Amino acid sequence: MMQGTPDHHDEGPAERKMRFLFALRSRGVTDARVLTAMERIDRGLFVRGIFADRAYEDMPLPISCGQTISQPSVVGLMTQALNVQPRDVVLEIGTGSGYQAAILSLLARRVYTIDRHRRLVREAVELFRDLNLPNITAVARDGSFGWPEQAPFDRIIVTAAAEDPPGPLLAQLKLGGIMVLPVGQSDTVQSLIKVTRTERGFDYEELRPVRFVPLVEGLASD
């Protein structure tokens, strides 16, 4: 271990949780409901294998199917920007590990989540069941088309980057609804965008630079 580097392996759960929440606050996650939800959902359950001991660090980590679990501060900032209300129905594009959907489930009335990787959906559904989160519905399908059967949605969150906000997702957003997503070329720095649907159309607000995996059309073969 390098001199001056803190050793977090000897921490107990309480210390680890305090450090985790401090990192979120220091990076701009200040919404009390979001912080409470992120305190309740243990990120360690969503990280498997050799990276499990780094689950409480503020960094993205690899998961199955060549995907990643986003760094907690980005999850918190996206959730905060989404401004989820207790009666909201939320659509998530990109289930991944299921971590983001689990947090949203504590804030919303219902969460619908889509991923193109069947394996990720299966593993996430098992975790949702173990955590007793019955208000999440997950399915393997092409997320770029949204979930028209359940539309419109109060909130939409996309955890993969498209060059522009996908038209089908914009169409499935309720009047007054909010969508948060990364936008930009996959090989350059992307911008996190907040889209609000108004009577005049859509208002766009740029939040911060981010880097996400690209939004890919179609179902994966796994």
Automatic annotation (TrEMBL):
GO BP terms in the entry: methylation; protein repair
Keyword Transferase set for record: yes
Signal peptide: none
Compartment(s) of residence: Cytoplasm
Known catalytic reactions: [protein]-L-isoaspartate + S-adenosyl-L-methionine = [protein]-L-isoaspartate alpha-methyl ester + S-adenosyl-L-homocysteine
EC number: 2.1.1.77
GO molecular function, one term: protein-L-isoaspartate (D-aspartate) O-methyltransferase activity
Coarse class of the protein's main subcellular location: cytoplasm
GO CC, alphabetical: cytoplasm
UniProt keyword annotation of ATP-binding present: no
Keywords: Cytoplasm, Methyltransferase, S-adenosyl-L-methionine, Transferase
InterPro entries from the UniProt entry: PCMT, SAM-dependent_MTases_sf
UniProt-annotated catalytic positions: 70
Pfam families membership: PCMT
Record family assignment: Belongs to the methyltransferase superfamily. L-isoaspartyl/D-aspartyl protein methyltransferase family.
Protein name in UniProt: Protein-L-isoaspartate O-methyltransferase
Organism: Gemmobacter lanyuensis
Gene that specifies this protein: pcm
